[in-house]
Amino acid sequence: VYAWTTSWGVSTRLIGGLIMTHADDDGMVVPPKLAPKHAVILPIYRTDEERAQVLEYCRSLKQELEAQSYHGTPIRILIDDRDLRGGEKNWQQVKRGVPLRLEVGPRDVAANAVFMARRDRSPKEKQAINRAELVQTITALLDEMQNGLLERAKAMRTEHTRTIDSLDDFRAYFTPQNPNAEEPEIHGGFAMCHWCEDPQVDEILKELKVTIRCVPLDGDDEPGQCIFTGKPSAKRAVFAKAY
């Protein structure tokens, strides 16, 4: 038995791809299926008496939520009871990309509710939700976020993917408009092009600093003409430029 092994830094590249795909100007956005914690509970209080009351409620809520299952594993909950201001703790968890933030103060305890914020929406967008409703719907909420982030990522990929059928268009797609700029110019995206696997193509790609990213398994199998050599091509490959 022989094992096929690879060593090309896939783990760190996937983490980088995850961050670049989903993050926004406020920090990371971690899809629920990959998140270390599905939700963080943020206790808010002023006095020692309020602290004891709020923390007791938070611990009880944590147990209820952890009793729920998300794709075969218990919901993962963190209580952020650090001695920091509520706004500071909230903002740190926004930047960390925790899918759900659940604020609990004395009024929420009295109302048997929480103040919930989703990381796939604006940090300022929050809603009060009954405790029982949260427990019943948290799995569906996480799935909604997971699916929404996936569709958003697919839409972004589609928006930045172009089918190219000529070498001139290929060069234009990957050539900077201002090559003397101090900062690298972000241009182009993914290019789907016919390619005949001829080694002489490498020189053209090297000149443009473009590489083949993959040959899609479910891609365009329509035969065509290689845009680099004019030779017959069985399918398209995906080309892109690193920055």
Would you mind describing this structure in some detail?
The chain has 243 residues and is of the alpha/beta class. The chain has two domains: 10-157, Rossmann fold, CATH 3.40.50; 161-241, Translation Initiation Factor IF3, CATH 3.30.110. It has helices at 10-22, 48-66, 86-96, 106-111, 131-159, 167-174, 201-208; strands at 39-43, 69-70, 73-74, 77-79, 100-104, 113-118, 126-130, 161-163, 190-194, 210-214, 224-225, 232-233, 236-241. The chain has a five-stranded mixed sheet with strand order 4-1-5-6-7, with helices on both faces. A four-stranded mixed sheet has the order 8-9-13-10. A two-stranded antiparallel ribbon has the order 2-3. The mean pLDDT is 93.
The 3D shape can be described as elongated
The CATH homologous superfamily of the largest domain is named: Anticodon-binding domain
Oligomer: single chain
Counting helices, strands and paired strands, the structural category is alpha/beta
Number of helical runs?
7
Which key features would you list for this structure?
four-stranded mixed β-sheet; Translation Initiation Factor IF3; 2 domains; 21% strand; elongated; five-stranded mixed β-sheet; alpha/beta; Rossmann fold; 243 residues; 7 helices; single chain
